[in-house]
Amino acid sequence: MAEASKTASLTIDGQTYELPIHTPTVGPDVVDIRKLYGQANVFTYDPGFTSTAACDSEITYIDGDAGILLHRGYPIDQLAEKSHFLEVCYLLLYGELPTADQLEDFEHRVTQHTMLHEQMAFFFRGFRRDAHPMAVMVGVVGAMSAFYHDSTDITDPWQREVASIRLIAKMPTIAAWAYKYTIGQPFVYPRNDLDYASNFLRMCFSVPAEDYQVNPILSRAMDRIFTLHADHEQNASTSTVRLASSSGANPFACIAAGIACLWGPAHGGANQACLEMLEEIGTVERIPEFIARAKDKNDPFRLMGFGHRVYKNFDPRAKVMKQSADEVLELLGIGDNPKLQVAKELEKQALNDPYFAEKKLFPNVDFYSGIILEAMGFPTSMFTPIFALARTVGWISQWKEQISDPQLKIGRPRQLYQGMTERDYIDVENR
Length: 431
Ligand code: ACO
Description:
The chain has 431 residues and is mostly helical. The chain has helices spanning 36-40, 76-82, 85-94, 100-111, 119-124, 133-147, 157-182, 196-205, 216-228, 236-246, 251-262, 270-281, 287-295, 316-331, 338-351, 354-358, 366-376, 383-403; strands at residues 6-12, 15-22, 30-31, 60-63, 68-71, 74-75. Strands 1-2-3 form a three-stranded antiparallel sheet. A three-stranded antiparallel sheet has the order 4-5-6. Helix 7 (157-182) runs antiparallel to helix 18 (383-403) and helix 12 crosses helix 17. 40% of the residues are buried. Bound molecules: acetyl coenzyme *A. Acetyl coenzyme *A is lined by residues 266-268, 270, 294, 302-309, 359, 361, 364-366.
């Protein structure tokens, strides 16, 4: 980090402290409070990290007010249109777009690691059949540390690289098998002659009795969904991965922690919740009723797929996703899909409603993704596992960045203690 060229003054009880201000390549300045506790014996208070940068990073930049998302400087809409998932993986992991040779080599390395250790098939079988595929993924990814001992030494750059490739390569197999297991079908093994998205679709939808011909339109749409979810800066699951990794935990355990965090409906679980909400609304006539509920302070209901901690403008990924939904449903001959009609009308009515305008609530990436995934044949329970599969490269890139930093410190937030002060123990008969 470069020397700070500006400072902020903070006065507490008449004593002034000078705090360095760091200027990023783009985005708001950052006040450095690392020495504040040592100098002034005060903590800062920011639950939910609304104003706190927990790390410095060179991977992804978001301007939430302008609706901008850049990976290594490249805008997400350009990547979604011109690039593809594995190229974006390379970009996130290594910082630059690959040359043709680098890309070929990278794709080869990923393709050669798609199979799981055969013993893992038995591990899957320990789950109940009705387990949610996210539960299976948390368990299986965490268990990878028990199967791949040769890539858990985080001090060895080569082992870190092997673990990264393994996770990216095996995640489609894990997600597809989690799905197959819950529907009682045999596991389908990966095929290395297929591209990343086609391979995943085939492992999900092929059965031994009948092979699955991958529709290139669906494969392209799948790849775009992966690309749009690849990374998103210091969101809750990424911060979870970073916090877990700060203690020196192995990469598989850290990614399992990220998957657990992603599962929640305020984060990755929103795509499932959004589709369920569209289903519940059912027809455009019922939209005003649901908008009224979302605005009612006494009703916990929220419009799923709406609002974002960082975007106070259109989520740039939502625009691409909406276009993809139109294309996919049209090409599948289901352009009049009722959920898509409800989603479009709901978006229109919410955007014209002062409540949503004042609170700067816009559709997020999850608003349209569920509609596409459902049209492809995925049940809602698979939406979040697909998000986890795609986000793995983001988690891994952020993990690698953090672990390579010689300044790495264990993450240890402070607290504003509001509990009892010290008091004496009372024997049970006297309480
Ligand atoms: N519907 C109705 N009202 C909403 C919504 C919504 N979807 N989102 C926020 N609000 C309201 C809140 O009630 C609050 O109102 P108040 O100021 O009167 O109390 C205000 O907008 C701010 O909301 P917060 O919860 O404080 O905003 P925060 O930044 O903490 O939350 C979040 C962001 C969690 C995404 C929220 O907008 C939400 O719950 N959205 C629905 C779930 C969703 O779609 N999540 C996906 C996020 S994207 C992703 O993870 C890929």
